[in-house]
Amino acid sequence: METAIDSANKEANGISLSEKKVTVVFVLGGPGSGKGTQCANIVQHFGFTHLSAGDLLRAEIKSGSENGTMIQNMIKDGKIVPSEVTVKLLQRAMQDSSNDKFLIDGFPRNEENRAAFESVTGIDPEFVLFFECPEEEMERRLLSRNQGREDDNIDTVRKRFKVYMESSLPVIEYYIAKGKVRKIEAAKPVKEVFEAVKTIFTPLKEKELYLIDCKKPVELIEAAMEMETEQQLSTCRGAEAVLNLQPASSVSIAYHSLFGPHDDLVLLELDEKLLPDVLHNSLMKMQFFVLRPKHMPLSMSEPPTLYCLYRLQINHCCVEMHKILMRKIVSRNWWHQSSKWHLVSWKLFEVAPRIDRLKMLLSENPYRFDDALMSEELDEMEKNNTRLYSWSDLIDKVQASADELRSGLQALSAVEIDGYWRIVDENYMDGILNMLLHNSVLNDWSLNGLNEAEVVGVLQSDGFPCEIAHHCLQVYGSKMDDGMWRLDEKRVCIHFARGILRGGKIRMDNFMVEWMRKIPEEMQASFDMLTGEVLTEKLGIETWVYAFSVSSLPSAPAERFSMLFRERPKWEWKDLQPYIRDLSVPGLSSEGLLLKYTRRTQPTPDAEPVFSAR
Amino acid sequence: MQIQVKCNCGEQNCPEWAIVELQGVIEPQPAFQDRLQNLEIGQLCRASSQTYTFTVGYHELTGSKVPLKKPLLVLKKIRHADEEKVELEVIGIIRQRILFKTRPKALISSKFNLILP
């Protein structure tokens, strides 16, 4: 409800509060008629802001400004302060306030005030509240009220009455003619007067509420609460009234005119960070699962809680949504009502993408030598029977977002051939890499500056499909700024190491010899290139080495750790780290992962920590 | 199955709804069971900057405004008559709730118990 008001507006004279639509109620009546008292009640109950012209003037005096002193002298004489001064003070107060409903108390006191207010602010009051009270009553109240006001002594009081009779009554007459006056008999006790005030102000309240399922008690997700819980929701206007409720004010809550069961409404709880994704027209793809609790309760009094799991993708991240289905708890015989499921709310949260499934799907049919030959001969029928997956198939079958799927495919070194994504068989890759290296020697190519067209052309003439040739460059090399390709030393050496170890364990010294022999002449290999790819073990006095690649391990943390501990019961951090650094679980840090899945021991404070299974 | 989630209001302008959370059941008097629309339930009053009171009948609840740990979106299912598609439209977001979790206090005095300064 805050509006941006230019400071220019504040400075210039006579600019209306055009940017803020305000509701103004004038509160008029003789001195001591009870205006101030009732205004306090109205503020509390109806959310108005009380602006008393008198208080604003007194505050201005207190501030000690030049304006203030002038005002002070006039008040001592019982005279009325010039209109512009008061109107400006009121205007400023209305602009500064965050509210849009104002009770203006003790203004306008005469025709001049009234005219000035209308022309300066351009505001027409909603209505005028007039406290009608006989003079004797007002005098009695004033002399006993002890507010510490300078003008509450008998002489000033009499002067004030005179002024009031002469100047203010015509204003009231003016508004009566316009039909805007609501009269209140002010000579009654405070409570009764307030009842009358309430009747006048009630239509201005906002009381729209949109109740969901009041008849069907509804449980919240936090089912730990034993008592039934109900939720009431409000539409926008009612919501604003509730959310912006000011201190010392109240609002009425009522059933909406459209109240009733609303099966088309759903509440979705989600992390703040997923909000932008969901709000930008996201697409949810769902697979529907129902998870039953391990045992169904035997007693009639306890209804079971079922979770319905939706697996889906939302833009950039992979999320799961749990729809929590609850039974109605209206009557004891819930068996009868067991067929009716009542949807309450959904929970959306981010999970790690299921890349393992991608790997499994693509490994069903890796690309081999024979594929290259057969591709033209396969007819449509056969192609459908073989398990080949295109991008759209994968998006459907694998629970991951598009970005995650792409990075998963890259991590698996998959290649798209004929519209299908394939993993290439190791032997085949070996073949093509060797062919590339062989040709580089023959044609005197530099491994740091390979010409793409030339390489692909030569490989094609050797019988490799063009996509595979490109793929080979991408897997083992990187494209540089000048468009040439450069073979990556580490990747090539790892490839050869894996080739050597495919046969099984080898003694370390033999392995190193063999490895040095196999790698291209221009390249250097060192054993630490193989972290995350091989493990060593000591058999007797000899060290043996065998293949154990992180890429062959499952990507879900629980399975990953169980495989690791099956391989070796105890791991030192430096050995373990390369095998878990690619694990990512939304909401869990790497320390959290370790805490959750491993037991950590440290024999002495300076020794390396050792991890084992929980 | 694909479901489109729409939000016509843009991220910043999602209308903010309010939740008043109670423990217990609000029951209208039996005479009013069928005519609940527009029936007043009670008065929600913000007594100070931190405390809220909710007066229903002759019970008074005391509570406070608590932000939700995770925001709730209010979605509306739109089923197109001609197609099979179901769409979910975001019609509001809830970030705050006014939580009443204490036992209600019985107001023994008459119904017209006004809060006066």
UniProtKB/TrEMBL annotation, chain A:
Organism of provenance: Actinidia rufa
Gene Ontology MF: a single term: ATP binding
Keywords tagged on the record: ATP-binding, Cytoplasm, DNA replication, Hydrolase, Kinase, Nucleotide-binding, Nucleus, Pyrimidine biosynthesis, Transferase
Domain notes: Consists of three domains, a large central CORE domain and two small peripheral domains, NMPbind and LID, which undergo movements during catalysis. The LID domain closes over the site of phosphoryl transfer upon ATP binding. Assembling and dissambling the active center during each catalytic cycle provides an effective means to prevent ATP hydrolysis.
Cofactor: Mg(2+)
Subcellular location: Cytoplasm; Nucleus
SUPFAM superfamilies the record matches: P-loop containing nucleoside triphosphate hydrolases
Signal peptide: none
Catalytic reaction equation(s): CMP + ATP = CDP + ADP; dCMP + ATP = dCDP + ADP; UMP + ATP = UDP + ADP
GO cellular component annotations of the record: chromatin; chromosome, centromeric region; Ctf18 RFC-like complex; cytoplasm
Binding positions (a ribonucleoside 5'-phosphate): R58, K79, I80, V81, G106, F107, P108, R109, R149, R160
Residues noted as binding CMP in the record, renumbered to the chain: N113
Domain of life: Eukaryota
Protein family: Belongs to the DCC1 family.
Subunit structure: Monomer.
Enzyme superclass (EC): transferase
Biological processes, Gene Ontology terms: 'de novo' pyrimidine nucleobase biosynthetic process; DNA replication; maintenance of mitotic sister chromatid cohesion; nucleoside monophosphate metabolic process; pyrimidine nucleotide biosynthetic process
Cofactor note: Binds 1 Mg(2+) ion per monomer.
Protein residues bound to ATP: G32, S33, G34, K35, G36, T37, R145, K188
Gene3D superfamilies, sorted: P-loop containing nucleotide triphosphate hydrolases (3.40.50.300)
EC number, as in UniProt: 2.7.4.14
Function: Catalyzes the phosphorylation of pyrimidine nucleoside monophosphates at the expense of ATP. Plays an important role in de novo pyrimidine nucleotide biosynthesis. Has preference for UMP and CMP as phosphate acceptors.
Protein name: UMP-CMP kinase
Automatic annotation (TrEMBL), chain B:
Coiled-coil ranges (or none): none
GO cellular component labels: Ctf18 RFC-like complex
Pfam family, one: Ctf8
InterPro entries: Ctf8 (IPR018607)
A biological process from GO: mitotic sister chromatid cohesion
PANTHER family the record matches: CHROMOSOME TRANSMISSION FIDELITY PROTEIN 8
Protein name per the record: Chromosome transmission fidelity protein 8
Organism: Actinidia rufa
